[in-house]
Amino acid sequence: MTSMHLFTVAGLPSIRPGDDLAALIVDRLAAMGESLQPGDILVIAQKIVSKAEGRLVRLADVQPGPLALEYAAIVGKDPRVVQVVLDDSKEVLRVRRGLLVVEQRSGWVCANAGVDRSNIQPDDESDWVALLPADADASAEAIRSRLAELSGVAPGVIINDSHGRAWRIGTVGVAIGCAGLPPVWNQRGLRDLFGYE
């Protein structure tokens, strides 16, 4: 490969539970005069995958327990959000003002187990929050298989989430799920330009 062409899939609607992401992507690509090609890699935001899979929690339906109330007082967050974080976590690693770092059920060490309310439309009575996909690799594989069914091309699929960096300002994109491409490049035994292993 000597070049790379990056572009967004324009015009996707607001995603709702049950939406067929692959069909929406193929449709929007066609509207742009584009189609999937062998070797393509799609990078899909975790939020729309979570929304399509219904990984949403209505805060009005959450009853915080004693631990959520205790942590909420320390971190300064809504106790219902803290309860959702605890419910989707294996272990709490750090609790301080403004920060709840946990090991999320899929093994990600991140703030608030990736629980997020940005770009989640509230209903008339409550805010909602989104969880990370239950198995982002399986989500990526399902999207890839559906894209192949619809288009005849099985692109690589990466599900991307934004993660903060400790002691840094800003966030980085993290591939929390992938299908159709190797997630790790083992360089042991390879040599650099000067022969160093």
Taken from the alpha-carbon principal axes, the silhouette is globular
Number of helices: 5
Widest β-sheet, arrangement of strands: 1-7-8
Low-confidence stretches: none
Number of strands: 8
Q: Can you tell me the CATH superfamily of the largest domain?
A: CofE-like
CATH architecture of the largest domain: 2-Layer Sandwich
* Total tally of structural domains: 2
* Intertermini distance: 24 Å
Q: Explain this structure to me?
A:
- The protein has five helices and eight strands.
- With 197 residues, the chain is of the alpha+beta class.
- The chain starts with 20 loop residues before the first helix and ends in an 18-residue tail after the last strand.
- It has helices spanning 21-31, 46-52, 66-75, 79-87, 136-151; strands at 41-45, 56-58, 89-96, 99-104, 109-111, 128-130, 156-164, 171-179.
- The protein is globular, with a radius of gyration of 19 Å.
- Strands 1-7-8 form a three-stranded mixed sheet.
- It has two domains: 18-55 and 134-164 and 172-180, 2-Layer Sandwich (60s Ribosomal Protein L30, Chain: A), CATH 3.30.1330.100; 56-132, CofE-like domain (CofE-like fold).
- Helix 1 (21-31) packs across helix 5 and helix 3 (66-75) packs across helix 4 (79-87).
